[in-house]
Amino acid sequence: MKKLLEKSLQKAISYSDYRTLISDLLAENKSTGPNQTEDLYNYSLLNDRRMKRLDKTIKVTDITKQSVLKINEAQTWLVLTEGWCGDAAQNIPVLNKIAEENSNIDLKLVLRDENLELMDEFLTNGGRSIPKLIVLNANKEILFTWGPRPTEATNLIADYKVKNGVVDAKIKEDLQVWYNKNKGENVQEDLVSLF
What we know:
Layout lengths: L1 H10 L3 H13 L10 H20 L4 H7 L6 E7 L4 H14 L5 E7 L4 H4 L12 E6 L4 E5 L4 H14 L4 H14 L2 H10 L1
Parallel strand pairs: 1-2
Antiparallel strand pairs: 1-3, 3-4
Keywords: Isomerase
InterPro entries: Thioredoxin-like_sf
GO molecular function: isomerase activity
């Protein structure tokens, strides 16, 4: 596992480089990943706008700041993501804001589809769900993982699936409404409980 993590970390990029990568690809009418479709491009375009808005509006709570400042040893926060993923667009800006609160945290991102071997070690209910945060100490030992969604959003989807049998356009719309109202607070609560 350590070698796999180190291999992925060699390809990892910063949050600002990730944002630039997505913008550059969009300028070429592309999305991240090997599959290039109009839908994935459109999702990426929408997500780029979401991330721009969240980068400006996300507020780190006092409780989160106090908790994250207690991290007194180097950590790498490695995130598996793709630019077309709606959950990633809603959650990664929050992770970035939290990481910026403490210089001991180095946020790094890798594209899921270029790192499937790593992704397959961190499946969610058997699926390659993203974003997936893997928190490592200085020795590249896993401290904890988080993702792909905050607890409340996960429950929202699970409850809908029990009632309706599927995840459809209606619940995806409801999920985006939930994200807009929650403003990254549940992500912060989840992470504080893991520190």
